[in-house]
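Q: Got a minute? One more chain.
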Amino acid sequence: MAKEENNIANLEEQYSEQEALRREKLAALQAEGKDPFDVYKVNRTHNSKEIKENYARLEGSTVTIAGRLLSKRVQGKAGFADIHDREGKMQLFVQINNIGEEKHKAFKTLDLGDWIAVTGEVFTTKTGEISVKIFDYELICKALKPLPEKWHGLKDPDLRYRQREVDIITNSEVKETFLKRSRIIKAIREFLDDKGYLEVETPILSPIAGGAAARPFITHHNALNIDMYLRIATELYLKRLIVAGFEKVYDMGKNFRNEGIDVRHNPEFTMIELYEAYADYYDMMEITENLIAYSCEKVNGTTKVTYQGTEIDFAPPWRRVTMADAVKEYAGIDFSQIATNEEAQAIAKEKHLQFKKDLKNVTKGEVLNALFEEYAEEHMIQPTFIMDYPVEISPLTKKKRGNPEFTERFEGFVFGREVCNAYSELNDPIVQRERFNQQANERELGDDEAYVIDEEFMSALETGMPPTGGLGIGIDRIIMFLTDSASIRDVILFPTMKPTDN
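A: Always. Here it is, folded:
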């Protein structure tokens, strides 16, 4: 007894009291030759859902199931416990007459969080709950850390994101969010595959960070002795595949941008980009609204969601409004009456707009965009396409038919947040090079997010790309809306976190 007390005391110096007791139990099991970590395989016959859905056929049958022990109510010679597997909960009936005195005593020593495999008979309790009457069980993994208290779960946001596995165990709504995330992504692929799009994979490491205006992550390839970049967008590679003749392509995967973290931004995030030959930005509007509505209805049974208390309806058609008209409506400024950069700069000064470069170098189009972001964006609650962006901020886009100051570009907004970006793609290599040169000038003026010229892409464009529509959608933001999640971290399993000191 003294030796046992000393062992517990030594463990308590290293671990919390509960952890120390659990490690002591593990040591005792190992000393008896019953190490739970020596279990390699479980011959499971059913999961909880299969038993419940097929009860009429399985009643009275012997099954083997496995899961994590999350509640235990065993007093005297009989009692109940609950184990959870991927599909849900299964109640267990534990009785000394069925499993014997030794195993019954050992069952009482199990800790919440332990993994067990049980074999028993399917039956219904007097209260009508489908259960399994245990004949035998095996401890298949010992949980050395205790779970949070059952009724409160893991509530601290920082801990929830750092210990996502515990968050999912203790908060059922979190598990449902990520199950729904998987179904949403599957629905997106179904929609595009049914329309003849080909899913492809483009490089994540590239010698140039192209296709978007963003700050990249930089790494170094030792064998080639060159700096490389984690991709910020898949656009340029996908357009090269349009040049190759694939006609309809998409890539859904991770992008990386070395920027801030907030409720809408994570440095690592999921995007889908798709490109279709012979299409324009009107076709991309149709694809966008139908794809998102399809995914929402597929997963939620309706095109309507309630997001943070506001009802949003994704049913097509979405509202369409030009950027200039939105600024006129919400900022009271009619840009059709502004002729020069100087006039626009005066408005910017009056409205205290901020830019990354000196105001004297700011163009009329850049002022229009800044006014939209400052005054109009927050009002785009229901799904809305903001159309016709200034040419200065759209270097990969064809000019607007009939109005060369603007481009055939739109962004989709929901609840005041951008969710997608699309173009009638610029396919004139001569104009494209001019646009890239203009972006190089922007970098010299201090915009470190301006586009960098990609000569391999330019070579492809010179080979010839047909008229093409292109679209990029932020998958995480769409999932936020479809799961009523306030933060992007709530829909990313393991969001980027600053390391803890320990």
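A: The longest strand covers residues 62-75.
Q: Perfect, thanks.
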